[in-house]
Amino acid sequence: MIRRVAVLAACLFPLVGSAQTRDISGIWQPVRAIEGIQPSGAMNMPADGKPEHELPYTAAGLEALKKHRPSNGPTEVAAAEENDPAHICDPQGFPRENLFELRATQFIQTQFQVVMLYTYDRVYRVVWTDGRQLAKDPDPRWFGYSVGRWKDDSTFVVETNGTDERTWLDNAGRPHSEDLRVEEQFHRVDHDNMELTMIIDDPKFYSKPWVALDKLHFKLMPPATDLVEMMCSPSELAEYNKKHASRGAVKK
Amino acid sequence: MKLTSTILMITGGLMIVPAAFAHHGSAIYDNGKAVTVTGTVTEWTWSNPHCLLEFDVKDDKGGSVHWVAEVSNPPDMTARGWSRRMFKAGDEVTVTMVAAKNGEPIGRIARITINGKTYQGMGAVPGEAKQ
């Protein structure tokens, strides 16, 4: 009897525990929450002052960095003195959506697109998989333009350009220009596990490409998982700043 | 600012690096020193970007100091066992926190006790091993 049940289960659920073929649909959550939140900047290159995490800025990149006053990282300032655009509830944009507050994310796969539904601010991205190429000189958008292709049966590669340089790369205030190109590699290790590697290529601000995420580990959540709501609300933010943040910056 | 004798100042010799403070950093805080106070809750705000607990602590002059202390956002605090209804006005709480460098009565809660139950807030208590 037990053997029959096992055989039946194997027929009904043949892919459980094994690698999926060209499929990343489902709700995926970083295994270690802190690796998704990334309070000090890109997980693989946090702004922690260590020489190995120093980014290869160009002169223009350094100039842009100086204009940013983050509330996290080695150059952090008090909350009331920072100028993080996301802290006035501007869109985080891309790639910051992957480099700060990356939480459970639902991937919906259609014949022409992969749609990513993010927890933070309930935003979504569309990655076209219909064979189109990235536009050569697109008008910038908060989340840019993305196309995807299957590198092999378990690795989905997304390329993005046309991002808006008003957005920061990460929570540490790393800048990017409109020349930014981002490559994401979603590698489905097996049915329940996926890794994300993300490469930043912005020759105007960085002298060479650098790896922002190196195999960030996601686990597959049950399909009935109800994503939590986490919004940037201007009125809630104003209340927080009035009651708390602004008082911390008062010089005495 | 001189506070009541219910305030216990614990100075750790070790600078503790805070855990995730998702939005706003820790620049305003004296992160090497914990402050513990007992007071009465006046308001609990369960919202983004950070939840805020307000409470009054009696001082030694017969008055009181109104504290506003933060923790992280609702999703993070839910994961730590906190909830929207866990405090109400009039509740007595004992709060261990890091306080602002500038002396303003604002802080970030590392640990809190209410009705005999203790909850972890954000980050380790300075001077204590990380839990």
Topology readout:
The complex is a heterodimer of chains A (252) and B (131).
Chain A: H1 2-12, E1 26-30, H2 33-37, H3 59-66, H4 96-99, E2 105-109, E3 113-118, E4 124-128, E5 145-152, E6 155-161, E7 181-190, E8 193-201, E9 210-220, H5 234-248
Parallel strand pairs in A: 4-5
Antiparallel strand pairs in A: 1-2, 1-9, 2-3, 3-4, 5-6, 6-7, 7-8, 8-9
Chain B: E1 8-11, E2 33-45, E3 52-58, E4 64-70, H1 74-79, E5 92-99, E6 106-114, E7 117-120
Parallel strand pairs in B: 4-6
Antiparallel strand pairs in B: 1-2, 2-3, 2-5, 3-4, 5-6, 6-7
Record keyword descriptors for this entry.
heterodimer; A: 252 residues; alpha+beta; 5 helices; 9 strands; globular; B: 131 residues; mainly beta; OB fold (Dihydrolipoamide Acetyltransferase, E2P); five-stranded mixed barrel; 1 helix; disordered N terminus
